[in-house]
Design a protein that fits this description.
By secondary structure, the protein is α/β, with parallel strands linked by helices. The protein is built from 17 helices and 10 strands. Helix 8 (198-205) links the parallel strand 6 and strand 7 (209-212). The protein starts with 16 loop residues before the first helix and ends with a helix.
Length: 396
């Protein structure tokens, strides 16, 4: 189990995250009864950790990149998965010698809220460890203006502009439901998950066609716009401002009947739209650490970047349901919001947690069998040769 202290017993999460994932996957089966979907949502939540041999580490995330640290006025979660993030630490603390080894000391000397605000300005994945005001729903949908009858096409064309985990998982589930999924990357900056566990990357991307486009090149950018125009569903995980810089207006495209799935750390609204976040720090921002503290007396991480797979399953369900309606629309899902909604509406009582813990300790059942990828994910740009055919093809 991935929840608890590294030197203590495994703990159950006080939020039934596996049950919520199972429920979303069951709903997806209803929307797409012909789909060859994974056996359970719980499997998807722990899949990466099992493949990589990750274990619980309490106040350090399972993958080791995110830390819960005490500042003046409260705790923060700070995630440093990239070498570029390390270079920002001196600017965050205004001390040239700031590094990972001195991180806890520097955080302890500073005000929590000021630190979070400064970190977000710098582009760090940083959040306060507190309960987040929950959204009414795990995602928001702005209806489009498409046809009023349900869509009759059998295989939607999905353009997947996302990277890492949540968006690619949504795309892979749509592929399992019969969609034609085209993964679009920059040849100069491809999906960072390609540098991670190859088997896990294959699980999320093996069934996708892969094209590479340089968005600084006018012809490639025209190709991207052509793909978007042809798409039934678009998946992206970019800040709205970044999309606007390349001429993509998600609201306008969704209003025309496109199904647009946006999965970001904090949603598309207000100043939070520019905040950087990943699965572990976004889960802390959503209140999961505080739920752990109420249950076990100490704020800790629960699971492995748990907001990512939960948002990915939810996103696939929402995207397919909206596309099947024929109306289209903009689906705004945030990693933080999915967790905040779960914490607000599904937190277990002390008696329930004790019962769950007893059941977990006595459980001797074998884990769900790990999935096998359909093959190897294609290389960056492997399918560029079919771009013209894709753009010129007629809808099914």
């Amino acid at each position: 189990m991935l929840t608890g202290e590294s030197d203590g017993p495994p703990l159950v999460a006080p939020i039934p995250l596996a049950a919520l994932a199972d429920g979303a996957l069951a709903a997806l089966r209803v929307v797409a009864p012909e789909a060859d979907l994974p056996s359970s949502g719980a499997l998807l939540l722990g899949e990466r950790a099992r493949l990589m041999g990750l274990t619980r580490q309490g106040e350090v995330s399972a993958n080791g990149t995110c830390r819960l640290l005490k500042a003046k006025g409260g705790r923060i979660a700070i995630n440093i998965p990239r070498s570029d993030d390390l270079e920002l630490l001196p600017a965050l603390f205004k001390e040239s010698g700031a590094n990972l080894q001195t991180l806890a000391r520097h955080v302890a000397e500073r005000d929590r809220d000021a630190l979070v605000a400064q970190g977000r300005l710098l582009g760090l994945a940083i959040s306060a460890d507190e309960d987040c005001p929950p959204p009414q729903d795990p995602f928001a949908i702005v209806p489009g203006g498409g046809q009023t009858a349900p869509c009759k096409a059998e295989r939607p064309l999905v353009i997947d502009l996302s990277s890492l985990w949540a968006g690619p998982l949504a795309g892979s589930l749509l592929a399992a439901a019969g969609a034609v999924v085209v993964k679009v990357e920059s040849p100069l900056r491809p999906d960072g998950a390609r540098m991670g566990h190859a088997g896990f990357f294959d699980l999320l991307n093996a069934e996708k066609r892969c094209v590479a486009l340089r968005l600084t090149d006018s012809q490639d950018l025209q190709m991207l716009h052509g793909l978007i125009a042809r798409a039934d569903i678009v998946i992206e995980s970019s800040r709205p401002r970044a999309l606007q810089q390349i001429g993509l207006d998600a609201r306008r495209l969704a209003a025309s009947g496109k199904t647009w799935l946006s999965i970001t750390a904090y949603g598309r609204q207000g100043e939070a739209a520019d905040w950087i976040g990943f699965g572990d720090d976004a889960a802390i921002a959503g209140g999961l650490g505080r739920a752990m503290e109420r249950a076990f007396g100490r704020s800790m991480f629960a699971g492995d970047a748990i907001a990512d797979p939960l948002a990915g399953i939810t996103g696939a369900l929402a995207a397919l349901a909206v596309w099947r309606s024929g109306m289209g629309g903009l689906i705004d899902i945030s990693l933080c919001g999915v967790i905040a909604h779960a914490c607000a509406h599904h937190e277990a009582t002390a008696d329930e947690i004790a019962a769950w813990q007893t059941l977990a300790a006595a459980d001797r059942e074998a884990l769900f069998s790990l999935r096998k990828a359909a093959g190897r994910a294609r290389a960056v740009g492997a399918d560029n040769g079919m771009l013209h055919d894709l753009i010129g093809a007629q809808r099914s």
